[in-house]
Design a protein that fits this description.
With 465 residues, the chain is of the alpha+beta class. It is built from eleven helices and 24 strands.
Length: 465
């Protein structure tokens, strides 16, 4: 790309023979891949916007007047924190008030796409868009002595700001950046949304399902511009760790001689998975929940018959969603004479993302790092046993780890399975290696075991010589 003509008031750009952009699923957003011409200007200055420092300063001017508290907000803050001495508890209360009591409504006309409404108006109206809610939270935090700042975010998969191109055009969201004082750092150091390098706690008051200390997946791993009064600072929001994000489950299975059986399953959700489940169960009727579980268990076994389910932790996003459900069905996959085969890791069909066989031209976006851990306890039918146990499978790669292990105690088979993805985006030149890792994991998860009848010789006591 080149500037073919330029004057004091006009410029002509020319480009030719640019390669096309591949149409691939789960790729970065188009604007992060395509060539762009960005024209920056400072309406109050004499030169073009050149740095992120300038961009942040210019944007903060939209927020200065909006962050004035007013007596109504101050009274509300005092009411909310009454009786609370713990500073982190106060932050949590204010965050939950703005995220859940202030409805999200976006009305952007003219400068409204950049300038928030005054915090007092947002409080009185009980609604606002992302920058309105962020401004209100900044104002309320200020009343308890914590100076925070609004931050522009280029959300994952939609915009994603380019650190090499300072501009305000590659942002579509606003959240809050809270510089954490020394006294609070021990309390927040394990939060997924806390960056120990910058000592910033990121808070997204638009989310109604993420607890304090966690931001939605769309905010994770992308650049955000903190708008200080005199400068801007471009920072990358941290991603959640696999240990804090994913699912944990246990399954208790009782098998009969014909391969049918009953399973009792417990599932716990962590991180973004937990937020997604809060959002999923919100507003569902009992009939809808019933149909959800009926469709779900039908993926695990044939002739599935859902029995019952209980769900806890749904009402408060600070709690962990946990499911308990029971179903019956035919666990056998194939039979041969008096024996049959089954797949012990029957809950794992949705744990690995789909990967195509062809090489990619664009990065593959997997979402946040995650970890899935399952434990199975399977009671063998009377008079039958597992023919043989597979060896332990352990796969380690730069993309994650997978481990499957079986053990047998009496007539009880125990299987444990752990799969973690440590990378959120796979570059195209490493896609084939990633595909091999996924395929190896799929093969290990799909391992079938053979159940055979115990012969009469096996029932005889050992011969003493």
């Amino acid at each position: 790309m080149e500037v073919s003509n330029q004057s004091a008031t006009e410029a002509t750009f020319r480009t030719a023979n640019r390669p096309g952009i591949a149409d691939e699923a789960n790729a970065p957003p188009f604007n992060a891949l395509a060539a762009q011409v960005v024209v920056n200007f400072d309406s109050k200055g004499s030169s073009a916007l050149q740095t992120w420092e300038e961009a942040g300063r210019i944007n903060h001017e939209f927020y200065t007047d909006a962050e004035k508290p007013g007596p109504e907000i101050e009274t509300q803050v005092e009411t909310l924190i009454a009786g609370k001495s713990d500073e982190l508890a106060k932050i949590d209360i204010l965050y939950n008030f703005v995220s859940r009591q202030i409805r999200y409504v976006a009305v952007e006309v003219g400068i409204g796409g950049y300038q928030p409404h005054p915090a007092i108006d947002v409080y009185k109206n009980k609604y606002g868009d992302c920058k309105d809610k962020a401004t209100l939270l900044v104002t309320m935090l200020g009343h308890i002595g914590l100076r925070s700042y609004t931050a522009l975010v280029g959300t994952r998969g939609d915009v994603e700001a380019d650190p090499s191109a300072p501009t305000l055009t590659t942002f579509d969201h606003v959240i809050v950046a809270l510089p954490v004082p020394d006294r609070l750092r021990p309390a927040v150091e394990k939060f997924a949304a806390y960056d120990p390098k910058s000592q910033i706690l990121w808070i997204d008051p638009t989310s109604e399902t993420d607890p304090l200390g966690q931001v939605p997946e769309m905010d994770q791993g992308v650049f955000a511009l903190i708008t200080y009064p005199d400068h801007g600072d471009l920072k990358r929001i941290p991603e959640i760790s696999p240990e804090q994000n994913g699912t944990r489950y246990t399954a208790q299975v009782r098998l009969l001689a014909d391969g049918r059986g009953t399973a009792d399953v417990d599932v716990e959700y962590l991180g973004s998975f937990n937020s997604n489940m809060h959002n999923f169960y919100r507003g569902l009727s009992q009939d809808q929940i019933q149909r959800h579980f009926e469709e779900r268990v039908a993926r695990y076994v044939t002739e599935a018959d859902f029995q019952r389910a209980s769900i806890s932790g749904v009402d408060d996003s600070r709690q962990q969603v946990a499911e308990k459900f029971t179903f019956t069905g035919d666990f056998s996959l194939a039979s041969s004479g008096d024996s049959w085969f089954f797949q012990p890791l029957f809950l794992n069909g949705m744990s690995v993302p789909e990967v195509g066989p062809k090489p990619r031209q664009l990065p593959l976006d997997l979402g946040s790092p995650e970890r899935i851990h399952g434990e199975y306890r399977i009671e063998m039918p009377l008079g039958m046993r597992v023919e043989s146990l597979p060896n332990k499978t352990s796969i380690k790669s730069e993309f994650g780890e997978m481990e499957v292990e079986y053990s047998l105690s009496g007539n009880v088979l125990t299987a444990t399975h752990t799969l973690s993805f440590t990378e959120s985006r796979i570059p195209p030149e490493k896609y084939l290696e990633f595909r091999d890792f996924v395929n190896s994991s799929l093969r290990a998860e799909a391992q079938r075991l053979r159940i055979v009848k115990i012969s009469s010789l096996e029932d005889l006591p050992p011969v003493n010589k």
